[in-house]
Amino acid sequence: MSQGRCSATFATAMMLCLLVLHSGVAEAAIYRVGGAGGWNFNTVSWPSGKRFRAGDTLVFSYNPAIHNVVAVNKAGYDSCTAPRGSKVYHTGNDQIKLVKGANYFICSYQGHCQSGMKIAVFG
Predict the structure, then answer these.
(1) pLDDT truncated to tens, each residue of the chain (123 aa)?
(2) Is residue 79 classed as helix, strand or coil in its secondary structure?
């Protein structure tokens, strides 16, 4: 009888451990930058009110003939310039996974970033 009780206690403990581990794992979310309008002018405030996490994916939808997406550092974001070696995306449907901490993106076409085509997202 005591062996059955130990087995039941062990099984219950294992189930509780699995439940706790599973509840702590959040699934990554997918966000379309700019909403229905996509990556365009005046998207600078788009991240407001959203809760991002490292591993979430941002989808940048835009016309690649007139826009791009450049992953930049804070200085590049603030000055609207793409530092040497910045990753440039130009497919028109770019999917970028957020890293932990600050993630900065701009459009490097002349005047676009200055017109609000930039976002700062913290994962």
Answers:
(1) 455 555 555 555 555 444 444 444 568 999 999 999 999 999 999 999 999 999 999 999 999 999 999 999 999 999 999 999 999 999 999 999 999 999 999 999 999 999 999 999 999
(2) helix
- E strand residue ranges, 10-108: 30-32, 57-61, 69-72, 87-89, 93-97, 102-106
Residue 70 exposed, middle or buried by CB count within 10 Å (0-12, 13-18, 19+): buried
Domain 27-122 has CATH 2.60.40.420: yes
Task: Supply the pTM of this predicted model.
Answer: 0.79
Per-domain residue ranges of the chain:
27-122
3-state class of 109 per DSSP?
coil
Q: What whole-number distance in Å separates Cα of residue 39 and Cα of residue 33? A: 6
